[in-house]
Design goal:
3 domains, binds pyridoxal-5'-phosphate, Aspartate Aminotransferase, domain 2, 4-stranded antiparallel β-sheet, single chain, Aspartate Aminotransferase, domain 1, 7-stranded mixed β-sheet, globular, PLP-dependent transferase-like, 14 helices, alpha/beta, 11 strands
């Protein structure tokens, strides 16, 4: 007799005892870990860590009881993970998750709904539709709009640009890319964005068969926003050269600077050239909940919008959505499968709106967060982060050993260590500083380049931090830098 049942939740009395035990033990291990964590990374040497992971045998003969596996996971994996809740973990657009979102993850995993069809999700289909309707409304879209959850900003951007491409071919020449592939004029199609737009715009172009060269990158002002006159000139030049610009991407929160493009001005140009306007609001979209929502003026005129909940909406990875102003454009993603889109019933199947098939029930995290935390409270957190970023920038500016490289429009601080540094190797020194701080487990900082200079980056996404946390972090960086020289 096998006893496979012990590995699954069973319906009925005592059918979920082992599930409950595993969850209780996992939570207890995590609580203990959070209570005893002192550093954002354990400082285990990378090779030793790799070896420790590779020593976890995958052989059937070495299978152990789940309780033992949970304990070793806590000790080897969790203890040597990056601690996103730690005040000195401040590198990426990688947020400490809200507890409501983590609770939702438990429902998501245990019930394992799949969002492709109603008969794999039932209530979950309505939750996702309810949350996306709410979102569309928040962003100023009307009843003709719709949205769908995706795995992240990357997928949201790819889907939006794909629909823009297929829409353009349809409107321009009645060509059906879904059915007939790229039209003969495909090599002339152009996507416009700024030099600071996310790299996924290029990735989308290559995946869409247009090639990265189809992306025309327009220069930015010093603050990282697209130069509108340059965009206008570029559009005119492309037309002049008989090329076919079909979409312009505005960014509401560039990854490094947090710059928000002038969305209203981009819309006007998009209208003038009759092209699609996509807004990548993966980072800045959450401003819509805050007092600073006026900085997104014009976003409501976009044809499509990317929003990432696993950034400034504090959700566990993954959680993102793409919205369309005109929901009929989702038709460019529709493919019939007999087993999923049955016309014989009147139940909604969300597979019609996405490039995924099996899909996570991430919308529950947003629903539970809006119910337990509230959109105004989220907005207040964003306002706090924006104000605090200005204060942190002022601290950096006043610090004798740091140089602030640009004022922060959102919540990233770009700076570098310059204290008693040989100016010939400031770039290399800052790169080394970041990686050595990480390896020593002292701080997890970001690194990028600003105007060709190596820069350190703080991405301020943790609303629980105080200015004192930043002062302490700066002391640690300076002390470490002095020892490194
Ligand atoms: C502006 C912007 N767009 C898109 C993305 C990609 O999002 P994701 O990592 O969720 O795929 C990012 C990621 O940082 C981003 O900053």
């Amino acid at each position: 007799m096998n006893n496979w049942q012990q590995h699954f939740i069973q319906v009925g009395q005592h059918g979920s005892d082992s599930y409950r035990d595993a969850m209780q033990q996992s939570v207890a291990q995590l609580v203990q870990l959070f209570e005893t964590t002192e550093k954002p990374y354990s400082a285990m040497d990378a090779n030793t860590l790799q070896q420790a992971v590779y020593n976890l045998s995958l052989d059937q003969a070495q299978v152990a009881p789940l309780s033992q596996v949970i304990a070793e996971t806590a000790e080897i994996v969790a203890r040597n993970a990056i601690v996103v809740q730690h005040p000195d973990c401040i590198a990426h657009l990688h947020t400490p998750p809200l507890i409501a979102g983590i609770a939702a993850e438990n429902f998501i995993a245990a019930q394992n709904q799949s969002m492709d069809s109603w008969d794999q999700s039932a209530s979950a289909t309505y939750v996702e539709q309810y949350v996306t309707d709410w979102l569309c409304n928040k962003f100023g879209f009307d009843q003709h709009s719709d949205g769908v959850f995706t795995s992240g900003g990357t997928q949201s951007n790819i889907m939006a640009l794909l629909m823009a491409r297929d829409w353009a071919a349809d409107v321009m020449s009645g060509h059906n890319i879904q059915k007939d592939g790229l039209p003969e004029y495909a090599s002339k199609l152009r996507i416009l964005c700024s030099t600071k737009s996310h790299f996924t715009v290029k990735k989308a172009a290559s995946i869409m068969g247009l090639g990265e060269e189809a992306v025309v990158r327009v220069p930015t002002n010093r603050d990282g926003t697209i130069i509108i006159s340059a965009l206008s000139d570029t559009l005119a030049q492309l037309k002049e050269a008989e090329l076919i610009p079909f979409v312009v991407v505005g960014t509401a929160g560039t990854t490094d600077h947090g710059a928000i493009d002038n969305l209203t001005a981009i819309r006007e140009l998009a209208d003038q050239y009759k092209i699609w306007f996509h807004v990548d609001a993966a980072y800045g979209g959450a401003l819509m909940l805050s007092q600073a929502k006026t900085r997104l003026a014009g976003i409501e005129t976009a044809d499509s919008i990317t929003v990432d909940f696993h950034k400034l909406w504090f959700q566990p990875v993954s959680c993102s959505a793409v919205m369309l102003k005109d929901k009929s454009n989702f038709k460019y993603l529709l493919h019939h499968a007999d087993y999923l889109n049955r016309e014989s019933d009147d139940l909604p199947n969300l597979v019609d709106k996405t490039i995924s098939t099996t899909r996570r029930f991430d919308a529950l995290k947003v629903l539970m967060t809006l119910r337990a935390v509230g959109s105004d409270t989220l907005g207040a957190m964003i306002d706090h982060l924006l104000a605090q970023s200005q204060q942190v920038a002022a601290l950096v500016n006043a610090h004798p050993e740091f140089e602030l490289l640009t004022e922060p429009p959102l919540s990233t601080i770009l700076f570098r260590y310059v204290g008693q540094c040989n100016s010939n190797n400031i770039d290399e020194f800052n790169r080394q500083l970041r990686v050595q701080l990480l390896k020593a487990g002292i701080a997890v900082l970001g690194e990028t380049t600003v105007d060709g200079q190596a820069a350190l980056k703080l991405t301020i996404l943790n609303p629980c931090l105080t200015l004192n946390n930043f002062n302490e972090l700066f002391d640690k960086i300076v002390k470490f830098a002095k020892a490194l020289k």
